[in-house]
Design a protein that fits this description.
With 267 residues, the chain is mostly helical. It has 8 helices and 2 strands. 58% of the residues lie in helices and 4% in strands. α4 runs parallel beside α7 and α6 packs antiparallel against α7.
Length: 267
């Protein structure tokens, strides 16, 4: 049972040696409600597929017990084969193995246990839904990255052009010292690339930290383990766009400036 239920029904939740009273209800008018003393074996704060909470929740709590114990609780003198199950959850060793799932389904059909049987493979639905959601989010964030980098590109062009115009004398000195045009172009390309990539990496680091904190917070609130996903596709796109923007923002202004003679650059 859940930790919250255990703390509620027992005077002291520190020990599992005390019994509690379990009341069972029946929709059949011929059966009366029963009260049974039970001894808890263990308690959980979370469990997959069941409501196990350590704090109050609107959902009805769940008490887990073995199938023979549940059969005796419902009808002490009824055989175990007469116990009807409303839901059967089976966890396979490899949920992605569809052949194993189909083999299990065929065995249930061969045994005649599929009267009113509705098989539901949670992994298929989960993988399909996750793939669709991931594709949609990738498209949205990729479009945002393109728009942001396009707007930042014009700001980078203006700042690099102003920087080149302020450093015309330094460029003239470098040319008079024998520096080639391509080397000077690479120098300013590296400067622009460092500015762009440092800001992008800082933004990715801050965004990843905030995203990880939100995942941990949601995992604590929902008591469901969640995996942290790092957007490698968007990160690669940022790196490629950073190189392209750095090249385009510096190549044009440096080419126009270095096409002049050294004497003209000093003017």
């Amino acid at each position: 049972m859940g930790n919250y239920v255990l703390k509620t029904v027992l005077p002291s939740a520190d020990s599992l040696d005390e019994q509690f009273i379990l009341q069972t209800y029946s929709d059949d008018d011929t059966k009366v409600n029963q009260y049974t003393r039970k001894l808890p074996a263990w308690s959980l704060s979370s469990a997959p597929g069941f409501i196990m909470k350590d704090r109050p929740k609107p959902q009805r709590p769940v008490v887990m017990m073995s199938i023979p114990e549940a059969s005796r609780l419902i009808s002490p003198f009824a055989p175990l084969n007469d116990t009807k199950l409303t839901r059967l959850t089976i966890k396979l060793k490899d949920p992605s193995n569809t052949s194993q799932y189909q083999l299990l389904d065929q065995e249930f059909v061969a045994a005649g246990l599929t009267n009113g049987w509705v098989a539901y493979n949670f992994y298929d639905e989960k993988s399909t839904t996750q793939a669709e959601v991931k594709m949609i989010l990738d498209i949205i964030f990729s479009a945002i990255i393109l728009i942001v980098m396009f707007l930042a590109f014009f700001s980078l062009i203006s700042s690099m052009t102003a920087n080149l115009l302020d450093q015309t004398k330094e460029i003239g000195i470098l040319r008079s010292m024998g520096y080639s045009k391509s080397r000077i172009k690479l120098l300013y390309f590296y400067e622009a690339f460092i500015l762009v990539i440092s800001s992008c990496l800082l933004g990715v680091l801050i965004g990843s930290t905030v995203g990880y904190a939100m995942v941990v917070q949601q995992s604590i609130f929902t008591s469901i383990p969640l995996d942290f996903y790092f957007p490698w596709t968007q990160f690669t796109m940022i790196l490629v766009l950073s190189i392209i923007c750095s090249f385009l923002s510096t190549w044009g202004p440096t080419t126009a400036l270095l096409s002049r003679e050294i004497a003209d650059i000093f003017r």
